[in-house]
């Protein structure tokens, strides 16, 4: 039994990404902040900042891990990451996060037409109800951005 636990612990240690284990939390938070600002026109993310007030651990974990470790990995550019995030959130029906990431996608040059294509693609793996909800979310986002430009 103890041997199995040691083997399991060794496997877990080997599975830990080097960047996450080698960098300090502060370095990971700095990378996460940089990711947010690069996607959000140099601004912080309001939802993350509100979360930081009441749920500081969750905000720090989001910024350090999701953004500092995962989002800042090499291998995909921001455009591809945003399209993947929009598609994933649309497919699981997570409209709030989908809207945030669709906004980031628009900020970095993805077009409205490309985001609409993502919604059409969602019909295949997730079905029409999820795609229709995603289309409503995009319509809201597009309208808000147009109003903001006036």
From TrEMBL:
<dbReference type="Pfam" id="PF02627">
    <property type="entry name" value="CMD"/>
</dbReference>
<protein>
    <submittedName>
        <fullName>4-carboxymuconolactone decarboxylase</fullName>
    </submittedName>
</protein>
<keyword id="KW-0732">Signal</keyword>
<dbReference type="GO" id="GO:0051920">
    <property type="term" value="F:peroxiredoxin activity"/>
</dbReference>
<dbReference type="InterPro" id="IPR003779">
    <property type="entry name" value="CMD-like"/>
</dbReference>
<feature type="domain" description="Carboxymuconolactone decarboxylase-like">
    <location>
        <begin position="58"/>
        <end position="136"/>
    </location>
</feature>
<dbReference type="InterPro" id="IPR052512">
    <property type="entry name" value="4CMD/NDH-1_regulator"/>
</dbReference>
<dbReference type="InterPro" id="IPR029032">
    <property type="entry name" value="AhpD-like"/>
</dbReference>
<feature type="signal peptide">
    <location>
        <begin position="1"/>
        <end position="22"/>
    </location>
</feature>
């Amino acid at each position: 039994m103890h041997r199995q636990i040691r083997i399991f612990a060794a496997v877990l240690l080997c599975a830990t990404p080097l960047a996450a284990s080698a960098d300090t939390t502060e370095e990971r938070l700095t990378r996460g902040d940089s990711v947010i600002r690069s996607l959000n026109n140099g601004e912080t993310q309001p939802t993350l900042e509100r979360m930081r007030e009441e749920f500081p651990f969750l905000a720090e974990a989001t910024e350090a891990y999701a953004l500092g470790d995962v989002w800042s990995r090499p291998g995909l550019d921001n455009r591809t990451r945003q399209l993947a995030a929009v598609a994933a959130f649309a497919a699981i029906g997570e409209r709030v996060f989908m809207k945030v990431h669709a906004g980031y996608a628009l900020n970095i040059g993805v077009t409205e037409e490309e985001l609409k294509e993502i919604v059409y693609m969602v019909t295949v793996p997730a079905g029409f109800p999820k795609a229709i909800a995603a289309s409503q979310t995009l319509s809201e986002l597009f309208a808000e951005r147009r109003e903001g430009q006036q």
